Amino acid sequence: xxxRYVSPSELKxxxxxxxxxxxxxxxxxxFAFLVLPGVRNANAPAADMIRGPGGETGWLxxxxxxxxxxxxxxxxxxxxxxxxxxxxLARGQxxxxxxxxxxxxxxxxxxxxxxxxxxPPPRRFTxxxxxxxxxxxxxxxxxxxxxIKGSSMVSYSYLTKRDRMALVxxxxxxxxxxxxxxxxxxxxxxxxLFAHAGEVIPNRIPVPRAMDKLQAExxxxxxxxxxxxxxxxxxxxxxxxxxxxxxxxxxxxxSDAALARGIAYGAPGNGFEPAVALYTGDQWQALRNALIRxxxxxxx
Length: 300
What we know:
There is one protein chain. By secondary structure, this protein is mostly helical. Among the domains are: 71-201, Cytochrome Bc1 Complex, Chain D, domain 2 (Orthogonal Bundle); 230-299, no CATH class. The protein has helices spanning 8-43, 86-99, 101-104, 137-146, 161-173, 184-196, 207-217, 230-235, 239-247, 256-263, 281-299; strands at residues 71-73, 199-201. The protein has a two-stranded antiparallel ribbon. The longest helix has 36 residues, at 8-43. The termini are far apart. 18% of the residues are buried. The model is unreliable at 42-60 (pLDDT under 50).
């Protein structure tokens, strides 16, 4: 039938075009179902590189840890912490995975996902060069105590001294290079710290619970009483919000300048009219006096 409408040569050309389209669609399907997922998986970070801060609790939210009652840790025998025993290394490894690997990498190569873009980059514990405080025991212990200014390395003083020393030993174990001879005097000082000084561990509650308690205890300040005062009527757009703004500005009543600094450029979001940004010195004085006077009247 089709021969009635097209010539054999035209039919051959149409079939060739159809074959090209079919081959193209087949290649597109192969790319979509086989090649593309492989490329996506190849570019994805390794699974063991992306770990949430698991801690010891197993909670999905690392801030929602169980409450812990404060306690006093007695002095520790230095002999149990100053050497890299199997127990200390195991504890250090757990702490490293929990608190350090996200920046320094799981093996201490400075390639953790959270360290991307940090300046300076995270320390490579496997290499001997460029340690700010040095790689000796006393140097790393000092870094954990104080952090490093000008970097993202913060103080880990919230850990117990024993845990900090466990981290010291594990960090040193990540590098096979010579860490240098220890300073006997510095080691003696650290040993004395363990032997003669206990620690007071404060009470700890999870962040969500602390936020709930703060919210429950919060009492919003009473709205600013505008009344018939022309200075307040002209300056205040939202009395309740203005009261919250003033409550968050300790010392606003001390001077006209203090009041102006606190509210001039936050209006109207802070409850005051935008026009206050153009107030003269006399107007700021009138506004401050009116606020002090009306707030005192309400407090009586």
